[in-house]
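Writing this down once: the sequence line spells out the residues, with the fold written below as integer tokens. This is how one looks:
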Amino acid sequence: MNTPTLEDQLVSELWARDVRFLMGRQFSATPLLAPANLIAGLAQSANARVRFSLIPFFLRHPEFSAEVENADKSLSSQINQYVLRFYYTAAVYLQRKYQERLIRILGKQPQLPDLFSSKLGVLPETNPDQALAELARRHKILSGQFVNWLGTYEHAAEVWLKQMELQKA
């Protein structure tokens, strides 16, 4: 039997927390990592899809927003901090955008507080679509990567929401 990779372990942690966004399997029925360690691990992953799973993680578990700043402080690389800050902030805006769907799937949940928009140089917008577009523009500038960040954020939310709706049906 192959030893699970770090990515396999992170996916297992997500599965143990009812975030079945990535293909994988669950090695333990209960989470083994503290939330801040899981968040930091996801942000530092060498695998873009694992990093990307921060968005559905925060949409599923807004209560872990209290751990985000601890995870952020534990990250030694500014690049990893940007990953966490941008994906967390995208989840904040996506939660607002998809509020009705999220309530139908999960019931009423706490709102994700906006922790990083000012640090990222993004003005908090009341319109989530405008906020996401501005965040994506800023992400492109600070990362230096010409990625469709808006599409990336939306894709993460849509794939996970559809999966959750199918699971609930």
Remarks:
- The longest helix spans residues 78-97.
